[in-house]
Specification:
- The chain has no helices and eleven strands.
- The protein is mostly beta strands and about 110 residues long.
- Strands 2, 4, 5, 6, 9, 10 and 11 form a seven-stranded mixed β-sheet that branches. A four-stranded antiparallel β-sheet has the order 1-3-8-7, with no helix packed on it.
- Strand 7 and strand 8 form a beta hairpin.
- The model has no long low-confidence stretch (mean pLDDT about 95).
Length: about 110
């Protein structure tokens, strides 16, 4: 059974940093691409960042490029999202996603507020 469990969300001031983690089980993690999405209140879920399985190539939404970094540790079956220089508009529930399986985590709340 595929399971994705996010952690690391919380309340942070503008300009601060957080690192989200997504622990994966139920499939051979290193063989598949992984993504992070987010959904703010009243808005559609949007792709934040993705990372490929082979070269670890990354892709980012224009709104987070240069501030967020996605990475993966295949030995730990974990994908990370390092978020720096956080802005008020980054407030959302962040979800880990395994596209090949259509699997989603339960989400972790990130709130940026002064």
């Amino acid at each position: 059974q595929v399971q994705l469990v996010e952690s690391g969300g919380g309340l942070v001031q503008p300009g601060g940093s957080l690192r989200l983690s997504c622990a994966v089980s139920g499939f051979t993690f290193g063989n598949y691409d992984m993504s992070w999405y987010r959904q703010a209140p009243g808005k559609e879920r949007e792709l934040v960042a993705s990372i490929t399985m082979i070269l670890g190539s990354t892709n980012y939404a224009s709104s987070v490029k240069g501030r967020f970094t996605i990475s993966r540790d295949n030995a730990r079956n974990t994908v990370y999202l390092q978020m720096n220089s956080l802005k008020l508009e980054d407030t959302a529930v962040y979800y880990c996603h395994a596209p090949r399986f259509g699997a989603w985590g339960q989400g972790t709340q990130v709130t940026v507020s002064s």
